[in-house]
Amino acid sequence: MDRQTMKSLAEINAMMPAQFIEAFGDVAEHSPWVAREAAAFRPFTSRELLIEAFAWALRSANTDAQLALIRAHPDLATKARLTEDSSKEQEGAGLGTLTVEEYARFTALNNAYKSKFGFPFIVAVKGATKRMILDAFETRVTNDPDHEFATAVEQVCRIFRFRIEDRVAP
């Protein structure tokens, strides 16, 4: 899908299932099954209902599928190769211009967080600054595992919202 051209609901509702997955399969990081599940709710009468279908697909999945999707997300401020969406989002939050000290702090927090929870720290970075992200990181690393898993799922749903809003006309 050409990211520069927003799709209308009429175009989305007219897509064959494979076209829908091609257009939206990357909304959920390396997890096109979310788009496949969301497609079943067409026709969508609003962009909000499309967003809700993606969130429902994730929330109704079993814990193993949810965990696999969470684990598919990259560490924040990593040097690893990122998807186009993740790269754009992290750059927009200033994570591509970290000082040596900030990079070291992100690396230490990424390692501590993954060691404690078994999955990467997930936060919808759109509209956030690197300071806001670090503050959230430092707070959430103290959460209990069940609370943090639920928070990660909610953050993934926020990421769905931002990515769909960038692609679908209101």
Question: What does this protein structure show overall?
Answer:
The longest helix has 23 residues. The protein is mainly alpha-helical and 170 residues long. The two termini are 17 Å apart. It is built from 9 helices and no strands.
Mean of all residue-level pLDDT scores: 90
Element string (H = helix, E = strand): HHHHHHHHH
Unreliable stretches, pLDDT < 50, 5 or more residues? none
Shape: globular
Helix content: 55-70%
Distance between the termini: 17 Å
- The fraction of residues assigned to DSSP E strands is under 5%
What multimeric state do the chains show?
single chain
- The secondary-structure class comes to mainly alpha
Number of helices: 9
Estimated radius of gyration: 16 Å
The biggest sheet, with number of strands, parallel, antiparallel or mixed sense and barrel status, is:
none
Overview in brief:
Helices cover 61% and strands 0% of the residues. It is mainly α and 170 residues long.
Explain the layout of strands and helices.
Blueprint: H1 9-14, H2 17-24, H3 33-39, H4 47-59, H5 63-71, H6 84-92, H7 100-117, H8 130-140, H9 145-167
Task: State the main characteristics.
mainly alpha; 170 residues; 0% strand
